[in-house]
Structure formats: structure tokens, C-alpha cells
Design goal:
The chain has 96 residues and is mainly α. It has two helices and no strands.
Length: 96
């Protein structure tokens, strides 16, 4: 028999919030990159690199936000299942 499964909902909620906070920090960097730098003849190329970096940061921020929200949802779902079973489920066996 395998070990039972238990989730620390407080830890999951904290992890979810940290992911959401990280998404906000990255997202706040995106507008900073919306500049046209004075890089002489290379200004257009550098601006293009800034746009590409901003798009990448925005994509990472969106994924972090999604992961954070999903982690929080999973913690809530787990806690509701625990509460609904009023302690009758002590563990969940995973595998054969």
C-alpha cells in the first residue's frame, strides 16, 4: 500500500498568492519597456528587442497569474472536500 495524500491548504494558498504577486511584478515591468531608446543607428533594432522582451514578460506574467489562481482554486477545492467529508476521509491511496 502507498502512503496517504494530504495537502497543506495554507501552503497552497501562500504559493498561489506568491505566483499572483510575481505576475503583478513582471506585468508592471512591461510598460517600462515601451520606449524608443536612443541607440543611434540601432534604435529601431533595440526598440524591437524591447518589444519582444515586453511580449515575453507579458506572456510569463499571464502564465504565472493563471498558475497562481489555479493553485488557490485547488487549495479551496481540497479544503471543501475535506470539510464535506467531515474527517471521514483520512487519506487517499494513489497507485496500485
Amino acid at each position: 500500500m502507498g502512503d496517504g495524500f494530504d495537502a497543506d491548504t495554507a501552503a497552497l494558498l501562500q504559493i498561489g498568492q506568491e505566483l499572483v504577486d510575481s505576475a503583478a511584478q513582471l506585468g508592471s515591468a512591461v510598460p517600462v519597456l515601451a520606449v524608443t531608446p536612443d541607440a543611434g543607428a540601432s534604435s529601431n533594432e533595440v526598440a524591437g528587442a524591447f518589444r519582444a522582451l515586453a511580449a515575453a514578460l507579458d506572456g510569463v506574467a499571464e502564465k504565472l497569474l493563471s498558475m497562481g489562481n489555479d493553485t488557490g482554486t485547488s487549495a479551496d477545492t481540497y479544503q471543501k472536500a475535506e470539510d464535506a467529508n467531515d474527517g471521514t476521509v483520512n487519506s487517499i491511496e494513489v497507485g496500485p
